[in-house]
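Step 1: inspect the first sequence and its tokens.
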Amino acid sequence: MSVEYADVEAAAARLEGVAHRTPVATSRQFDALTGAEAYFKCENLQRMGAFKFRGAYNALHTLGADERKHGVVAFSSGNHAQAVALAGRLLGIPAVIVMPSDAPAVKVAATRAYGAEVIFYDRAAGQSRESAAKRIAAERGATLIPPFDHAAVIAGQGTAAKELLEDVGALDALFVCCGGAGLLSGCAVAATHLSPGIRVIGVEPEAGDDAARSFRSRKLERVENPQTIADGARTQSLGEITFPLVLRHVHDIVTVSDAEIVEAMRFLWERMKLVVEPTGALAAAAVLHARLPVRGERVGIILSGGNVDLKSAAALFAA
């Protein structure tokens, strides 16, 4: 199943008045450092603190009456968990979330606060979140809502780029973080339709470079249990739906180190007063550290989320 721009438009209609139309920030200092004219789409200010709300709400909204009655099951390290939990509460759909036992405490607490049931699995011991979620969904007759490899989820995520381009006009490049590429592929579908000639660039952590390698080999490659501070990008591979979309619409995928992520977070926090989590700073880190030439260009940057554990952030900044 693929995703077209019409799917993004339909998702935007469902999300209107429900999702926040997040603001676009700029920074003269960032522009001076990079030589670009940068526009930051602040999905850290989205409902539940991340872009994931867009895809989760769109996916749950498309369910039929019987599917809604039996509820949904999702698996996530945090932001998709919160997004499905909140969307379920808003739509009256019971939600069960399978989360890793080492997920950030702030994300677990928020997921429960939105009314979802949380069931843990141990990823360090090699347990599979997908298998656990599929088993629970089968036992309860619930619908499985994966975090990225789902057409309605992807279409919902693409509305972030749609809004950005509507607000700031055509761009030369758009930098988007990449885990399983739900956000990246959805934004790429929207951006290439609305801004012909744009270059869409995915950004992932060096320790989890499966997407970059897959993009170059044109074969789906994996990284087992990637160790990076960008917990939202610890996915092991792209998906069966997202990978073809990436190959069709994305122009390059680059990587950044954890140290560069922290530096980008520090800039966003201190200079722009934007609380952004490690995964949310991936795209900014790639531009700040000149992974690709952007001098003299109009550049979009998706700040994907702001659900950061302040104690963990303090440790990162002190290191």
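Step 2: inspect the second sequence and its tokens, then contrast the two.
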Amino acid sequence: MYAQVDGEPFPIPALNFAGIDPTYLRKIAYFPTSEAPGTIVIDPQNHFLYLVLEGGRALRYGVGVGREGFVWSGVATIHNKQEWPDWYPPREMIQRQPELMRAMSQLQSGIGMHGGPRNPLGARALYLWQGNKDTLFRIHGTVEPWTIGKSVSSGCIRMINQDVIDLYQRTSVGAKVIVLSSRMAEPGPASIDQWRQFH
């Protein structure tokens, strides 16, 4: 599952398992739910993403999630998917981390970084929207697989590149995504405005 990936425009090496808890490697898990197969359920507290399958099962992936102050919960849909996406960090992130500008350039949609092996979105990205609004949250790959199972991001859900490629192939645009609260309460409406004040 975690061998070198061939046939990509950029190299994806075999996963270095050093520093990665095997708990967070991809597996089939027991997951009884009333949600339809194809739904994605993200459990930030336990750092798992579940892709609902038939028969009370799910494909479970380990993820990295937002650190304190960058946590989001709610229900969204996958609006679009991209391979090797460009990254456009929010203006507020650049203000917090001005050193990011050294890696940025003027792209078609603004200041950002072209997709590639150093891009923090990794090999794939799934873009989460609510209705006609971009939540600014993504499910994406990572160039830092050792952060899987930790709360370190600015809110997005990061996955091992081999895992995000697998999820990308199994997931359709329009799929429902449920992000549970970190307190494991039932998911409520997402507070996008609250998230934006941090970004």
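Step 3: confirm your contrast with the notes below.
The longest helix spans residues 161-170. Residues 184-199 have pLDDT under 50 and may be disordered.
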